[in-house]
Amino acid sequence: MTNKKKADPKTSPKTHNLNNTSANGQRARLLKRLEPEDTFIARDEMNLMMPAVRFEELRNAGHNIKTQRVIKADQHRRTHRGVTRYYLSQSEA
Fold first, then answer.
1. What is the number of other CB atoms lying within 10 angstroms of the CB of residue 55?
2. Is residue 78 classed exposed, middle or buried when 0-12, 13-18 and 19+ CB atoms within 10 A define those classes?
C-alpha cells in the first residue's frame, strides 16, 4: 500500500477550468479571482449561473465577503439598478 497524499480538490487546477460547473470548481474560481466582482462578470466571464449562492457558500465557509449595490450596464448597454458587487474584505468577519 502506498502512502501518497491526495491533492486537495479545492486547489486543483481542474477546479479553475471554466468547464467545471461543480460547486467546488465555481467557489475555487471565485476565490482565485476575487477582486470586486459583480453578478454580470461572475456569469459571463466565470461561468457561474447563480453567483449569489456561491458567495453565500463562501461566507458560510468563513470568508469575509461584502456586497455593494451598483448601477451597471449589461453587454447590450441596458442599465440595471441594484446589481450586486462582491468583494473580499480584509477586516475580520
1. 24
2. exposed
- In the DSSP assignment, the letter for residue 14 is G
The full set of domain ranges for the chain reads 21-88
Say if residues 51 and 86 touch (Cβ distance below 8 Å): yes
Strand order from edge to edge, sheet including 79-88: 37-38, 79-88, 65-73
Cell of 21: 460547473
In this predicted model, what pLDDT tens digit does every residue of 47-93 receive, in sequence order?
Answer: 888 989 988 998 999 989 899 999 999 989 999 999 999 988 776 54
A 10 A CB-CB count for 46 gives 17
Provide the 3-class DSSP secondary structure of residue 48.
coil
Q: Check if the beta carbon of residue 8 is closer than 8 Å to that of residue 61.
A: no
Q: How confident is the model at residue 20 (pLDDT cuts 50, 70, 90)?
A: confident
